[in-house]
Give the backbone structure.
Amino acid sequence: MRKCCLRELGRVPYGEAQELQQQLVSRRQQGVAADHLLLLEHPHVITLGRNGHAENLLASQEILRREGIAFFPTDRGGDVTYHGPGQLVGYPILDLREWKRDVGAYVRAIEQVIIDTLAGYGIAAGRIPKLTGVWVEERKIAAIGVHLSRWVTSHGFALNVSTDLSYFQYIVPCGLTKPVTSMAQLGVDAAWPEVARSLAGHFGRVFDCEMVPGTEREN
Amino acid sequence: MTDVVMPQMGESIVEGTLTKWLKKPGERVERDEPLFEISTDKVDTEIPAPAAGTLSEVLVQEGETVGINTVVARLDEGGGDAQPAAVPKPAKGAEAKAAKPAPPPPPEPAAPPPAPAAPTPEPAAPPPAKPAPPPPEPPAQEAIQPAPAPEQVEDTAPAAEAASEPAGPLSPLVRKLAREHDIDLSRVKGSGAGGRITRQDVESYLAQQGTPQGAQPAAPPATAAPQPAAPAAQQPPLAPAGQARTRIEPMSTMRLKIAEHMLLSKRTSAHVTTIHRVDMTKVARLRERLKEQFQANYGFSLTYLPFIVRASVAALRQFPLLNASLDGNNIIYHNEVNVGIAVALENGLIVPVVRAADEKNVLGLQRAIVDLAARARSRQLKPDEVQGGTFSITNFGSFGSLVGTPIINQPQVAILGVGTVDKTPVVVDDAIAIRSICHLSLTFDHRLVDGALADQFMGKVRQVLESWSEEVL
């Protein structure tokens, strides 16, 4: 069975997490690192996907500065999004050539991991055709945005566990004018580490790999 | 030639959107170096080049969505340098064609054009156009026309350049620029290693040449008037008859931006244009009197434009709705008067902004305009110098146009077009007089501005110009 290193990193500034991802991606491409799943949380930050529209960022730089929200343009797919405390952010660094070699299947699988995780808490979440992400009725609970370089993935997903949803007022999430929600808003009082553990389990099952804590080199 | 295709990103994926070219036509790329990016279902992917070579042809533009395995570009693996690429060349086809319809002249049908295959580091300036008889020599192509050698049609580019080529290697980009602007590279001074000519060298050479390269009557998107000084002369020569019937070239980023911006404006605003005839005689006399002194004191000439800016500013102060913009259902009144001035570039236009135009006199305005226009042409404007305009002026009169109907520069609500100033017989106090007449056209957004207001605004502009009383120096 393939192995996937699971690393729980706690709260990591966005820029730092990006650097770590880049290192892992290039080592994965060279074949000197195994697949990884990074689970973490960011301080307040708004990021813009490569094909994002700056007009979906509703707040001026000044407001962002005043509110202590960082801003990063990134190379992931998708539009603008917000990350902050109480959100479970996952960055899988996988070589898809060893999985299905299919980006569509990859995105659907990520959605499945989150749907299964939420089901464990009694939340019935699902998909909306053409709108990547995980939804509870018409509300978005998890966002997805991925970058792929030589079949190695980076960026990933963000699940609202107990996110302060008021921060989403500064953006049009993913360019869609649909509301967002969180597990807490849906009445589920779950702690971040607990959700992370559960999600990692579902990740291993859906991607058919063994989750190994810590870093481990291939070979 | 290697075809580059939209890759298959998985069974479930049947198409992809090409979001970004990471190389430009004519640029060299190494095998496995990222060449473009695609987007499929929230996944952005960089696609590496399948082989090393020169990107010779881009077939799918940024933003286009195409099915998998569609050819999106072609790579030329031949010693990149020898091929100035970018010419979407009907290479194979033309060669074949050329070979056929030419039975009479000296055979050698197979003789391949000298450029591509040979990885030689430059056809090192071949002897200039000797009318050498038998072999289809490249220099012969310089004399295109209905020339005696009908078989030699294709691949004119490298040969045409060779004659005027200075020593030292040239990048494909420099060659491309030179060809596009019809520059004799031997007259460009190289600042790179070993006197090598860089792109900056070519650009600053172009900038020095000043106006002449403004081949296009580009300035405003207005109705261009026929211009006596044939601009066509500067254009790259049209393909001679007998060649492929079309030529495909990707639009430059600037061209794409302009196209987008123009359509956006047409979709956004309700464009209406009103035209006023203005008697510029007073200003013309003043200008005539001060011109030389102006040149001597400040080193630049005095044109009509700063007078018109000054008059517009006075009118904008009186009718602030023309200095506003629309944001949803709100009107935003701008307390600053920042006037954008359209500047024609070789292949497009840009609208740098004279900030706080209401705080400048004619001298200050002229200085700002000269400075912005020069830096626009040498591509040295800073980003914030093309932003924040609250009103725009486009001077198509300098290209001979009498009247134009410009497109509003969003999110502004009005733009003033300046026609040429001509001595014209007009009726003054029931007598015929010769006056310097100029037509000013104001395109305004009828969502916000009504005709009556627009004409009051123009009345004010006219009144200031016709009864000019301000000191200039």
